[in-house]
Amino acid sequence: MSNTGLLKSSIGRKFAMALSALFLMIFLLQHLVINLSAIFSPDTFNELSHFMGTNPLVQFVAQPILIFAVVFHFVMGFVLEMKNRDARPVKYAKNNGAANSTWMSRNMILSGSVILAFLALHFIDFWIPEINTKYIAGDMSGLNAEGGFRYYEELLHKFHDPIRVAAYCIAFILLALHLLHGFSSAFQSMGQKNKYITALSKFGVVYSIAVPLGFVIIALVLHLAH
Amino acid sequence: MNLKLKIWRQKNANDKGKMVDYPISDVSPDMSFLEMLDVLNNQLIEKGESPVAFDHDCREGICGMCSLYINGEAHGPDRGVTTCQLHMRKFKDGDTIYIEPFRAKAFPIIKDLVVDRGAFDRIQHAGGFVSVNTSGNTQDANSIPIPKADADLAFDAATCIGCGACVATCKNSSAMLYVSAKVSQFALLPQGQVEAKDRVLNMVKQMDAEGFGNCTNTGACEVECPKGISLDNIARMNREFSKAILDGREK
Ligand code: HEM
Ligand code: SF4
Ligand code: FES
Fold this sequence. Notes:
By secondary structure, chain A is an all-alpha fold. In chain A, 77% of the residues lie in helices and 0% in strands. The N and C termini of chain A lie far apart (56 Å). At the A-B interface, α1, α3 and α7 of A face α6, α7 and α8 of B.
């Protein structure tokens, strides 16, 4: 490939967008499975958390890829949005978007921005304290003062505040809306269109509702566990 | 029918332009939309005002010249038709009708409702053709066997009339539906294979250079396209594009 680069073309940018999104959707499923263990078996949750938090492959290979994918996805999302706005400098006096497209498809940047705000909160809630404990304070034990695992206890503590629980739930509703368009859109962007993709898109609808709903249920159960 | 028209008036490319109200009475429901505008223009001329400039040619839905963004939709509320085939019976007595030009940076306004869709021609020049040497012994196209399913899809793609409704209706002013139709009509046929990879790369490059936006797969273009060009063509173009990139054809 020469120096013009894939990302200089509109189709290339969308392809990269779809690839990053695909990675995020796989990650999301994995994240949900681990979190679900928190409501069924706090011990399992503790062990999984300790493994994910200390395994070098997860910490130094998977985690940087994930951070790159998230940053790439939202930066490219904003780049595309700006380019697309620029492509129509004078707006219509009357535009009937609802006549030909879904609200979700027209508002990816809105749902995406809410997800981004949520991610910021989520980082402050969990990621930064983890990095602090493990790599700044140097405590890799994963144990609390009493000698048990600290992860589940910390999780419960976070979901005490009803405002935080509400913020999480709202973000997940917008994630569902983002995915209801995004899932099938990603395959279209990558040029995939056949009967298997059509079937996969139907699964995509289930995924887009079930996965965010799963997170909402977890947040509510943890809140009520107090 | 009595109607209240709100029409975009703009003297020339540099004028700022604005929406102007034009009440019109005694409109027959059997008139086409363009005939209704003809009546309005007659009245304007009689009053000594300048008539509303709008594009049209065949007035039978095949040339792609008529445009207009009517009440927030390209070619108005009807499906599968161009503006010349839209009839006033689609509206009710007393309706307010917004009439605007197709808007996109790549479609600059010339006057009132007339826009320059030359960008489409330049995309077509970049690759929308097959090179045939007229040596005198050119093969008869009909003697090349083509699977019926492919021929049908190619024909469907080839029905695109280049009207620009897809661009006008797209929230991103993306020209993907148009370009994908022009890429697909050749990509599906044996005659188009020789230049297939360069074609898709060159046409997409020109499309980007013209300042069209990026596709978000909203599907609005497919709904508003008067010829029912399918979104599948965009998937096909994306596929053709990645094949060409993987082949190292990128220039
Ligand atoms: C971090 C905040 C996020 C922002 C700002 C954001 C923004 C966007 C935008 C603007 C688009 C539409 C791009 C276009 O087609 O024009 C998009 C597409 C998409 N997003 Fe996000 N998003 C975010 C997070 C996520 C997450 C966490 C996921 C999945 C777990 C996700 C999944 C998708 C998918 C599947 C698509 C469709 C890709 C395509 O059309 O090719 N997004 N995103
Ligand atoms: S794809 Fe449809 S809407 Fe777009 S230019 Fe062709 S005929 Fe017009
Ligand atoms: S004037 Fe030719 S398609 Fe409408």
